[in-house]
Amino acid sequence: MLEGKKDAESVVLPPAPEDAAAEGEAEAVIPLSEEWASSPLDSIWAKAVLFDNPSNPWVQQLAINGLFHWSGAWGEATPEGGTEIDLDGTRTRRARLGARLKAFGNTEIEAVAEFAGDSNFNGIERLKGTTRFLDNAYVSYGKMRPGFSTEYRTEPQRMLTPERSFLVNMVAPASTLGVMVGQDTDRWDWGLGWFSSDADSNLGGFEGNGFLLANLAYETVEKAEGGAPIRTRWHADYIYNFDDESSPAIPRYNVAGRKSANGKQLIARNPAFRHLFSTGVEVEQGRFGFAGDFILANGNTNAWGLSLTPSYWALPGTLRVVGRYNYADTDDAGGLVGGMGVGSDPYFDSTPVFVGDEYHSFYLGANLHLYKDDLVIMNGLEHVLLKDEAGGGFDTDAWIWHSGARLSF
Amino acid sequence: MKSLIFLLLIARAAAFDSAGFGQSLNGWTRDGSAHYSLDGAEYLTLRPVVTPSEDGGETVAVTVLHRSNSWAEVPFQLEVAFAANGTPQSFRIHGTPRGQKVDTGLITRPSPPSAPAPVEGQPTPATPAFHPLAEMKKSLFESFESQATTAAEAKDTRKRDLLARIYGPEPVDPTALARGLRYNLDLILRQPVSAK
Lengths: 409, 196
Fold this sequence. Notes:
heterodimer, A: mainly beta, Porin, 16-stranded antiparallel barrel, B: alpha+beta, eight-stranded antiparallel β-sheet, 31% helix
């Protein structure tokens, strides 16, 4: 019936909804918007979603996802009293293809295959299910990356630097089979999980007693006076490794028996950690971003350090300037182990490998976003100082130019 | 008897006919949208979200997208609240073109003007015509068009990647947007929203 034909007098007028006035007056604190302007390639990227129907009771979404990450580094490392080490190289750092399925209204299944790297690296990157219950609680199961420290938790599609920092790559746990339960509330997030120690580039199995992971995070959004709101996230992560020195998962690599590029020092045993702890804060306000993280690792080697990663959108959405300072220290001679350039992650590529007892890295780079966060060109310059005073005295310094490109969908 | 009818009136709940609404927009496609064009401009309407309210009425919210160029769509939300007897109670349009907030707020049903007191010795003046819906639509679109025009001239506050910068911001056309929204509003009002 057309309302216009009704007699206006006969209609009972209810009072205007009370929230109408409140909505207009009280300006709620709006979190920093991740909103992007429309871009000409939107329709191409939209094709990655094969099926999307939130009202379907069985399958709500099916999408394919992929990541291609190419990286190159040019530079040389100069050990004291030794010959220079060439760090030039390019790598297909990541080549991933996978699928994401949302089903039953509460479950998301991710399967990702990795095609880059050697046989220790390529395989099934993850096969993970997450089921949500009671509004904000979840249980995750399958092969997945344990959430430890800001950098390691960040998906490589969203990383600001070409590589994770030295200390994270040295201590991070492998992706293994595990189960996590947790809750994401408005402010507090927590998670508790157990992971197998069987590090395998495919699925792996259950080996040893595994390790426990506990996460706690607190997030706030505060309205700043006369400026954009400030989003702050504090986190603390703890890992207890039951298998200690016999765990192939912590750390993810094995350099025992190798000789270091600085001074050809024999690495007698692989580092092993029983306790890993990380705490840090991420802050975002308008164009500014900052992530600071402190990491402590304790086992047959002790190592600790921090990374400070400020960033600034010089052109919001297009050009982001990123800095990073990474510091790592140890009490043990040759206690720090890691790579430089394209081999920064010893799990991916450990040629050459360096040892030392104090590490500083200064990185300054710029990321050019061609299409949102999904087509990015990264360039930057890194200066590394690795001291080896307690060891053979092969202090090393390096200047490295990084270039990289990342495509994801 | 009168109170019984009144009770019956209250007990009835509004029920919006989403399928009929979709049919009048060329039908819902598999992804839950309807595609149509008006005066050469192309539009999309997403399947409405119908929320029942505690008094037996319901709110129908639809997203109307104007395809402003070959790669960009400008979305707006249109909300129409119905009373339990199917009477439209309020309208609202909101969206963020170019990251700018455009929100008409709730345009509620105006009260009828009180009849002027009859003056002794003179004939009773005719009650002026009162069309609440027409008035609501007028204030809705006046508010919308003025805000949308401001937004269309404002700087984009969203993140823009390199390609978006090269191609420039998508045009925000308040006239075309208002035309699409008005068309949807009229269709929603024409659907038989009545007792279940």
